[in-house]
Design goal:
This protein has about 350 residues and is of the alpha+beta class. It is built from eight helices and 17 strands. The structure holds 2,5-anhydro-1,6-di-O-phosphono-D-glucitol (AHG) and manganese (II) ion (MN) (2 copies).
């Protein structure tokens, strides 16, 4: 069969009534911006794109040159098409309304322009994560509060991983699908439709260097995973940590697993490392659509009512039964039985 390019896939989805013309345009534009980011990432040292930008973002993190560049690419690509009312990004303190000189649409776009950017200088895979919401009725100048909708309200979510190949993963609520960038043709080609995450796993991902800061249910859960075959879980587990959430999620979509970034006592002012609106929620939508799960450890991620654009949250995502197992340790602890 002839390969299906993303453009054709989206047009057919529109003809079938699954997406409208504005959402199709939005996805085309995001995919185009991701191609530009992919090319910048791929140039590496030849493109003068590596290293620190010499600036910090609102979260107090040092920005890489590629964080800043990727943010500009996404901003510039999405501003003038008429499909958006506003944008929000990890790299910008507040929501950005579409300038009045451009037509405005009904969607809100949130993104992490470059996830895992601490890996960029060592040539490990990084990615872009995005989430699409509807702009509330009657709002023409969206501000931060208009973005504060639960993950279950997402219209669409996706990520692009810039690895040995560049892969765009997408859901608009009808399964999770993967498109691989054909660099010669310059187009994304459907390479896996209706991805399904195995329900069970023997692989977990966590930054073990934070162990001494974890709270009691986390200590108990990881202790039992590490105990392997002779412990209460009765099987041996393998461990991975790439420090790039996009890459970890991509591995999980491919062969199952559980990824965790729990809350810890390292910095009590932060409820976790990852951000709800443009990291946890889009990944949660993608995983649920692939038969996996995403939880705070104490409930479904997509049900959380956000309180801030850059709010942090504990994250447990991946194979459904293993995420349920991690939740069980938290709930047992809360109910005093562990
Ligand atoms: P970002 O580069 O967008 O700030 O996100 C990095 C995140 C995530 O990709 C990764 O899982 C985690 O931070 C890495 O954390 P450690 O530094 O604790 O390994
Ligand atoms: Mn990130
Ligand atoms: Mn980032």
């Amino acid at each position: 069969m002839k390969p299906t390019a993303l453009s054709r896939y989206l047009i057919e989805a529109q003809h079938q009534g699954h997406i409208n013309a504005d959402l199709r345009l939005l996805l085309e534009v995001v995919a185009r911006a991701c191609k530009t980011i992919s090319s910048a990432v791929g140039k590496g040292a030849l493109g003068d794109v590596l290293g620190d930008a010499g600036s910090g973002n609102v979260q107090g993190e040092a920005q890489k040159k590629l964080d800043v560049l990727s943010n500009e690419i996404l901003l510039e690509a999405n501003e003038w098409g008429g499909h958006l009312a506003g944008l929000a990004s990890e790299e910008m303190e507040h929501a950005h309304a579409i300038p009045s000189s451009y037509p405005r649409g009904n969607y809100l776009l949130l993104f992490d322009p470059l996830d895992g950017s601490s890996n960029i200088d060592v040539n490990v895979s990084v990615g872009t994560i995005f989430s699409v919401l509807r702009c509330p009725d009657g709002v023409t100048e969206p501000r931060d509060e208009h973005f504060l909708q639960p993950g279950s309200a997402q219209v669409c979510a996706g990520y692009t991983v810039y690895g040995p190949s560049t892969i765009l993963v997408l859901t608009f609520g009808r399964g999770t699908h993967m498109f691989t960038l054909d660099r010669e043709q310059g187009s994304f080609i459907l390479t896996r439709s209706d991805v399904q995450v195995p329900e069970d796993t023997r692989e977990f991902a966590i930054n073990m260097s934070n162990q001494r800061f974890w709270q009691a249910p986390m200590q108990a859960y990881i202790r039992d995973l590490l105990a392997g075959k002779t412990g209460p879980r009765g099987k041996d587990f393998n461990m991975r940590w790439i420090a790039s959430m996009v890459s970890e999620v991509h591995r999980i979509l491919t062969r199952g697993g559980i990824f965790m970034y729990p809350t810890d006592n390292k910095d009590p002012s932060k409820a976790g490392r990852l951000r709800l609106m443009y990291e946890a929620n889009p990944m949660g939508f993608i995983l649920e659509q692939a038969g996996g799960a995403c939880s705070t450890g104490r409930g479904r991620m997509l049900d959380v009512m956000p309180e801030g654009l850059h709010q942090r949250i504990p994250v447990f995502l991946g194979s459904r039964n293993e995420v349920a197992e991690a939740e069980r340790y938290h709930l047992n602890h809360d109910h005093g039985s562990a």
